Amino acid sequence: MTGGDRSRSAGAPAHVVLVGLMGSGKSTVGALVAEGLGRPLVDVDVVIEAQTGMTVRELWERGGEAAYRPLERDVVVHALSTDGPDVVAVPGGGVEEGLVRTALVAADTYTVWLRADPVTLAERVGRSDHRPLVGADPLAVLEHQSTERSATYADLADLILDLDDRSPEDLAGTIAAAATEAAAPSPPP
Ligand code: S3P
Question: 127 pLDDT band (50/70/90 cuts)?
Fold first, then answer.
């Protein structure tokens, strides 16, 4: 949670941001956090698909990762440049973009890493339109991404939540409470 303009609703920072690997529940938990805080959810992949009229898989098949990443970057950076308030579900690879990391640090954000073991995530991520990377061996892909990205997620996170067997409702409740508490003015000494 860093500087930037502090327009808030329900006491939480302008942008409650969810990061984590594919299958970690960013969209599902994000929708529940948004509902709990009474603010909209910006699900970046949904915005990209609405803007382009194509699924993430179609984008990837037509232009590859090189066509997709700039769209992802621009949607995240734009969302964080607004006053909010909102909840932003950043796709798994979004944090690999320097401009995204800069925007996350510069804006009024509370960033949560939804952390889980690649084995758990591999069981979750069946074939779906928006996960062209999954392919035939989801576990290998997720283990590689976990090695590549965990340090970045940890650096950016104000809160790290292990999914374990926690329900989306339970996780969302923890996030809404933590974001609101983190923004509460500290009592005078
Ligand atoms: C990706 C994650 C996906 C989607 C694309 C690439 C990644 O989003 O953007 O398949 O690189 O981790 P979710 O994290 O919402 O699954």
Answer: low
Q: Which range, of 67-81, 92-106, 125-139, 169-183, averages the lowest pLDDT? A: 125-139
Any idea of the CA torsion for 65, 66, 72, 75, to the nearest 10 degrees?
A: -160
Please tell me the residue having the least CA distance from ligand 1 atom 15.
Answer: 91
- CA end-to-end span of the chain: 22
Q: How far is the CA of 65 from the centre of ligand 1 (A)?
A: 11
- Percent residues over pLDDT 90 in the chain: 80
* CA dist., res. 85 & res. 58, Å (int): 31
Report yes or no: 134 and 141 within 8 Å, Cβ to Cβ: yes
Helix (H, G, I), strand (E, B) or coil at 160: strand
Bridge partner list, 9:
12
CA-nearest of 75, 78, 87 to 35 is 87
**97 touches ligand 1 (CB under 6 Å):** no
The amino acid at 59: L
Positive or negative: CA dihedral 154, 158, 160, 166 = negative
> What b-and-e string marks burial along 16-43, b requiring 16 or more CB atoms within 10 Å of the CB?
bbbbbbbbbbbbbbbbbbbebbebebbb
